[in-house]
Specification:
The chain is an all-alpha fold. It contains 11 helices and no strands. The longest helix is centred in the first third of the chain and has 33 residues.
Length: 279
């Protein structure tokens, strides 16, 4: 069969498995659920609405995309390396393409569900406002599409170059969490030192967050941004650049990672894991 058709079937099977498991479903939706719960608790019995709620919701949406793309996607690859999935796919023609298509479908569906939950959960619980005009809805859609397309392939790149060890994945998460705090997702970027702003501007989270704010906040709120504007052209350019880099690098690095997998390396990792468990 065509690898694209096989990949779509694989992704649909994974989605059905998630829907049948309450534990897995909660795992993948836990980030937006926790965010909504904490935001509701901070706002009191009733959501306060207003600018602070809108800023918080925009930051939650941007951070969810960032965390899923650059943290959860590498975890997928780590798990599939550990259980031998990639090793089994290596010798099957078109299997790696089908694997990537299936994972892409799964990630897109899961992220779409998280974003819808944040938007309408925020409107219901926090009295946050949804985009007020067709132009803002259009802005929200293209920012989310470009943002997802920018971070997911880069997550695959990261997952393909990390060593096959849980410690490496844990160490990688530390700078990613730090990056979330300096990218202006939950605090005004203009209050940070210029060097920190320049560093954050290299990464996609800063631009995703600013783009989502432009869709959820009134036009006058752009005075809170560093350049007193929404910088839609800059946002599109930066996210498109990350997207192109990711789609160029990810397939090559994933194929190289799969070629390096072998039965002996898988067995060695399993023995090390069992030895650690024994102690």
């Amino acid at each position: 069969m065509n690898p694209l058709a096989l990949g779509l079937r694989r992704g649909a099977i994974e989605l059905r498995q998630i829907l049948r498991s309450r534990k897995d479903l909660y795992t993948y939706l836990s980030t937006p659920l926790v965010f909504l719960g904490v935001s509701y608790w901070r706002s009191g019995t009733h959501g306060s609405g207003g600018g602070l709620t809108q800023l918080s919701l925009a930051g939650g949406i941007a951070s969810t995309i960032f965390m899923f793309g650059l943290m959860t996607v590498p975890q997928f690859l780590f798990g599939d390396r550990e259980d031998g999935t990639l090793l089994r796919l290596r010798g099957v023609p078109g299997a790696m393409t089908a694997y990537l298509v299936g994972k892409t479908l799964f990630v897109l569906a899961t992220m779409a569900a998280s974003i819808v939950l944040l938007l309408f959960g925020g409107a219901l619980l926090l009295h946050a406002q949804l985009p007020q005009s067709p132009g803002q809805w259009l802005t929200l859609v293209w920012v989310l599409v470009l943002g997802i397309a920018a971070v997911v392939p880069m997550g695959a790149v990261v997952g393909s170059v990390l060593p096959p060890a849980r410690e490496a994945l844990a160490l990688y998460m530390m700078p990613m969490v730090g990056l979330m705090f300096i990218s202006g997702a939950f605090a005004p970027l203009r209050n940070l030192p210029a060097g920190v702003r320049d560093l954050a501007s290299v990464f996609p989270l800063r631009w995703i967050a600013q783009g989502v704010r432009s869709a959820l906040l009134p036009d006058g709120a752009k005075a809170l941004e560093v350049s007193d504007s929404w910088q839609h052209l800059g946002t599109a350019s930066m996210l498109a650049g990350w997207m192109l880099a990711g789609f160029l690098l990810a397939p090559r690095l994933l194929r190289r990672m799969a070629r390096r997998e072998s039965g002996s390396s898988l067995s060695e990792r399993e023995q090390k894991r069992l030895a650690k468990t024994a102690y």
